[in-house]
Amino acid sequence: MTLPTAFRLDNKIAVITGAASGIGRGIAETFAQTGARIVVADLDPAAAEAAAKSIVESGGQAHAMAVDVSQESEVIAMFEDVVRRYGRLDVLVNNAAIFPKKPFLEVDTAFWDSLQAVNLRGTFLCLREAIRHMKASGGGAIVNISSVSSMQAVVHHNGTYNASKAGVNSLTRTTALEFGADGIRVNAVLPGGIPTAGARAASAAIELKGPIMGEGRIPLGGMGDVQDIANATLFLASPAARYITGQLLAVDGGFLIS
Ligand SMILES: NC(=O)c1ccc[n+]([C@@H]2O[C@H](COP(=O)([O-])OP(=O)(O)OC[C@H]3O[C@@H](n4cnc5c(N)ncnc54)[C@H](O)[C@@H]3O)[C@@H](O)[C@H]2O)c1
223: burial class by Cβ within 10 Å (0-12, 13-18, 19+)? Predict the structure, then answer.
C-alpha cells in the first residue's frame, strides 16, 4: 500500500517499548515500513534482537535495546544512548506492559506495586525522559498504548491493570496539555482484545468471569488484530495527526459504545 507522505515516518527516530513481541512488534514493523528508524526496546534482549533483525532483513532500519521500563536508571540510559546515536528522538510509543490477573481480595501490595511499576511508573519514566529530549530538539510525537479496560471494567480480576491504564490515560492528557507549546503531541490508543501470546497467557492463567468481549458486544463483529492497533498508532505518531493531541482513541470494533 502506498501511503500519502503525511502518514509516513521517513527518517524519524522511533523508540517503541515492548517491541519484541505482540502489538509492539507489529507497531515496530509498520513504522519501519514507512521509513522510521526503530529502536526495539524490550525486557527480553534475545527477542528484541530477533525482532530488529527481522525488520532489517525486510529492508527496514532497526536496532535492539534491552531495557526494563520500570527501572529509572535503565530508562535514562536508553534515551541518552538513542540521542547520542541519532542526535534526536522524534517518536515514542509506550507499549510495554504486563497484565497478570488476580481476584481483587487477593491483591497484595507486592502484586499491586509490581504491576504499577511496569505499566504506570514505566510509562511515566519513558514520558519524562523522552519529553526532556524532544523539548531540546523542537518537538515530537508520543503514543501511549492504553486499553479499553481503562474505561470499562470488562472482566473480573483485572482491577490493578485497569487502574494502571486509567493512570496512563491521565498522563496522556496532562503531558499533552503541559508540552503542547513545545511541539510535543501525546495521544493514546486503547486496544480492545487482541489475540497476542501475552494476552492469551494472562487469560489462560485464571478463570475469566464477567461480560468479556464476547459475541454481540463488538458492533463491527469479531476481534481485531495487531495490525489494527499498529495502523492507528502510526496515524497518531505521523505528521497527518499534527493538530491532534491529548486524545484517547479506542480501537475496539466499537466495544466501548456497545
Ligand atoms: N493484547 C490485548 O488484548 C491488549 C488489549 C488492550 C491493551 N493491550 C496493551 O497493548 C500493549 C501490548 O500488549 P501485548 O498483548 O502485545 O503484550 P505482549 O505480552 O505480547 O508483549 C509485551 C512486550 O512487553 C515486554 N515487556 C514486559 N515488561 C517489560 C518491561 N518491564 N520493560 C520492557 N519491556 C517489557 C515483553 O517482553 C513483551 O515483548 C500493552 O500495553 C497492553 O496492556 C493489549
Answer: middle
| Ligand 1 contacts CB of residue 224 (under 6 A) | no
Place domain 5-252 in its CATH homologous superfamily.
Answer: NAD(P)-binding Rossmann-like Domain (3.40.50.720)
Q: Note whether 187 and 180 are within 8 A (CB).
A: no
Q: Ligand 1 centre from 102 Cα, in Å? A: 17
Task: Compute, in angstroms, the gap from residue 18 CA to the centroid of ligand 1.
Answer: 6
Distance CA 95, CA 83 (A): 20
What does the domain layout of the chain look like in residue ranges?
5-252
The C-alpha atoms of residue 198 and residue 180 are separated, in whole angstroms, by: 34
Q: 147 CB under 6 A from ligand 1?
A: yes
Which helix (H) or strand (E) segment is 184 a member of? strand 184-191
19 Cβ inside 6 Å of ligand 1: no
pLDDT tens digit sequence for 113-125: 999 999 999 999 9
Provide the annotated active-site residues. 161
The pLDDT tens digits for 238-255 are 999 999 999 999 999 999
